[in-house]
Design a protein that fits this description.
mainly alpha; Muramoyl-pentapeptide Carboxypeptidase, domain 1
Amino acid sequence: MKLPIGEGASGAFVRDIQQQLIKAGYRLPRYGADSVFGEETENAVMRFQRDHNLAVDGLVGQVTLSKLQQVNQQRVSAPDFPLPSGVLRRGDQGESVRQLQRALKQINYNPGTVDGIYGPRTEDAVRRFQSMYAALKDDGIYGPNTRKYIRMELDD
């Protein structure tokens, strides 16, 4: 398929892009990887572009495609740092929060700066991660269940 592609495109190549977006942490909750480049896919592309400092146009051109592939190749297995146990929430600070922030970055849920402060961006990253799993409550609070699912992602 000829690049760039955008809303209205369809086919196996679009499905591949959708699968890469999902793997990179950009959910497509309504339609998933359905091979149709619709509004949901365009919104995910635009969020990806914004998060990776690319031109935000909602089109998948060579630069966006390369960055998407690069992000997914950087997902390494088995973290080189432990995941904290216990419960963490907005306002918490310290090494446990830093460990959580590193893990979120590794699975492509960017919490912003790894500064050990559980602020709005870390809370949002946790909430975005939680929204991917029906078994998790989207409350932005890191606890045993969220830890279990993050561990599963890290081991992927």
